[in-house]
Specification:
single chain, two-stranded antiparallel sheet
C-alpha cells in the first residue's frame, strides 16, 4: 500500500511552496546582520545606500513593514534618488540632513519624519529649494505617517531630476538576487500577491487616476487653444493659388496647417498631462508660421522667433519684453504681444489667460503644477520658471523635470556636475543642499513649531 501524498492539488502545492519559501527566508535571515537598535546617522546612511526607505526600530509603530516595502517599491519603480527615513521623536536633529547627506554620499532628495514632524532637503541638481519648500508644505497637515510619506513621494517623484543610485538594483554583483529582493518576493508570494505588492498597485492606480483627472482639466484649456488656432486659419483667407502667392508663402501656410492637424492628433492620443506639451508646442510652431506668412503678404521684414505672449499664448508671438509686476510679486521682464504692450504702456491691465480651479478662475500660473506641460510647450528652453518666480506654477516648474512629467530640463545642476543618484561622497556644497524650513538642521520654524 502506497503512503498517502500530503501534497495534493493546488492548495497542497501552494502550501509546500510557501513552506519552501519560508525555509529559504529563514536561512537568509539567519545569515543577515541583525538590525541595530541605535539610530545614529551612520546606521541610517548605510541602510539608505541599499534601500530608499529606512524605518528605525524605535519608530516601527509609525510605518508598518508592508507600507515601507510598498513605498520602497514605488521609489525604485520611478528610478529617482528619493531617500526616506522614519525616526523616533527623540532622534537628535541638529545638522541631521547635512550629516546624513555626507554619510550616504549620494546626490538626492532626503525626506525625514521624526516623531510627528516632517521635513525634506535636496541637492539643487535634483530639486531646487523652492520646490522642496512647496512639497513639504503640501503635506504638512497630514498626521498619518503612511499618508504623509505616500503623498510626498507621489508629488516629489514627478518633479525630481536624475536617477536612482545603482546600489538599489534588484540584483547583486555576482548576478544573484539580493537578500532584500528575495525577502520581498518571498513575502509577496506567501501572501498570495497581497501585502506590499497590493499597496504598490494601489499607489500606482491612484497616481494614474490623478493623471487622468489632471489631463481632463487640461483638455478644456487645450481644446480652447486648438479652436482659437483653427479660427485664425479660417480668418486668414489665404489661397495658395491666389495672385501674388509665392512658394515661401505656400510653405508657411502648409506648415501652419500641418501644425494644426498635429495638435489635434496629439491631443486625441494624449493619455497623461505630459503629453500636452507636444500639443501646445505644435500650436506655437503654427502661429509663428502664420506670423511669417502675414509679414510676407504685407511686405514687412520677417519676424524673429520669440516666445508667445506671456499673458496669453493665444495672443501669438511676442513683440517685445516689458517690465511687469504681478500682485504681491517682484517686477520681472516678460514677453508680450503688441496689444498687451500698449495696454501696459497706458497703465491698463493686460489680458490674462485664466483657467478654472478649485478656487475659481485664476491666472494659469496660479492654477497648479498640472499646467506645467501646457505652458512648457509654449515656453520651452527653461524660460518660464524665471518668469514665474514667486508663483505656484513657477515654483513647481523650477525643477529638472519641468515640462517633462508635470512640467524640460530646467534647473541648477550644481557646480560639481553631480545629478540625482550620483555618488559625490562629501564633495558637495551645503548651500546647494537645501529646502524644507531649516537649512542643514531639521525643522527651524515655519509650520514645524519653531524647530529644535
Amino acid at each position: 500500500m502506497k503512503a498517502a501524498n500530503p501534497v495534493r492539488g493546488p492548495v497542497g502545492l501552494l502550501t509546500a511552496l510557501a513552506l519552501a519559501v519560508l525555509t529559504a527566508l529563514a536561512v537568509l535571515m539567519a545569515g543577515a546582520p541583525r538590525a541595530l537598535a541605535a539610530t545614529d546617522v551612520s546606521t541610517i546612511a548605510e541602510a539608505l545606500r541599499e534601500d530608499p526607505v529606512y524605518v528605525a526600530p524605535a519608530a516601527a509603530d509609525q510605518l508598518s513593514s508592508a507600507d515601507a516595502d510598498a513605498l520602497s517599491e514605488q521609489i525604485r519603480a520611478a528610478d529617482k534618488a528619493l531617500f526616506v527615513a522614519v525616526l523616533p521623536a527623540d532622534q537628535p536633529t541638529e545638522k541631521l540632513f547635512t550629516d546624513l547627506r555626507t554619510a550616504t554620499g549620494i546626490t538626492g532628495l532626503y525626506a525625514i519624519r521624526v516623531g510627528d514632524r516632517f521635513d525634506a532637503q535636496a541637492d539643487s541638481s535634483v530639486l531646487p529649494s523652492a520646490a522642496v519648500d512647496n512639497l513639504v508644505s503640501s503635506v504638512a497637515t497630514e498626521k498619518d505617517t503612511e499618508t504623509q510619506l505616500d503623498d510626498f513621494a507621489d508629488r516629489a517623484l514627478t518633479n525630481m531630476g536624475g536617477a536612482a543610485p545603482s546600489a538599489w538594483d534588484s540584483t547583486d554583483n555576482d548576478g544573484g538576487g539580493s537578500t532584500t529582493a528575495l525577502i520581498t518576493a518571498g513575502a509577496v508570494l506567501v501572501a498570495g500577491g497581497g501585502g506590499a505588492y497590493a499597496l504598490v498597485r494601489r499607489r500606482r492606480r491612484r497616481h494614474e487616476e490623478e493623471q487622468r483627472a489632471a489631463l481632463e482639466k487640461l483638455r478644456v484649456v487645450v481644446d480652447e487653444d486648438i479652436t482659437a488656432f483653427g479660427e485664425e486659419l479660417d480668418r486668414l483667407d489665404f489661397h495658395p493659388g491666389e495672385p501674388g502667392a509665392t512658394d515661401a508663402m505656400r510653405e508657411d501656410y502648409e506648415r501652419a496647417l500641418d501644425s494644426y492637424e498635429k495638435a489635434k492628433t496629439f491631443m486625441a492620443q494624449a493619455v497623461k498631462p505630459e503629453d500636452v506639451r507636444a500639443v501646445t508646442q505644435s500650436i506655437e510652431d503654427g502661429r509663428f508660421s502664420l506670423a511669417k506668412l502675414a509679414a510676407r503678404r504685407e511686405g514687412r521684414p520677417l519676424p524673429e522667433r520669440r516666445a508667445p505672449c506671456f499673458f496669453d499664448p493665444r495672443h501669438g508671438p511676442s513683440v517685445a519684453d516689458v517690465t511687469w509686476t504681478p500682485v504681491d510679486g517682484a517686477p520681472r521682464e516678460v514677453p508680450v504681444c503688441a496689444a498687451d504692450r500698449t495696454r501696459l504702456a497706458d497703465g491698463r491691465d493686460p489680458v490674462i489667460r485664466e483657467v478654472d480651479t478649485d478656487r475659481g478662475r485664476r491666472p494659469y500660473w496660479d492654477a497648479g503644477p498640472a499646467y506645467g506641460p501646457w505652458a512648457g510647450g509654449y515656453f520651452g528652453g527653461g524660460i518660464l520658471p524665471g518668469l514665474l518666480i514667486g508663483t505656484m506654477l513657477g515654483s513647481m516648474m523650477a525643477t529638472p523635470a519641468y515640462a517633462a512629467d508635470y512640467g524640460s530640463g530646467y534647473g541648477d545642476f550644481g557646480a560639481a556636475g553631480y545629478e540625482g543618484g550620483d555618488v559625490s561622497g562629501a564633495d558637495f556644497n551645503t548651500d546647494d543642499f537645501s529646502g524644507g524650513f531649516g537649512g542643514g538642521d531639521f525643522g527651524g520654524g515655519g509650520d514645524f513649531g519653531g524647530g529644535f
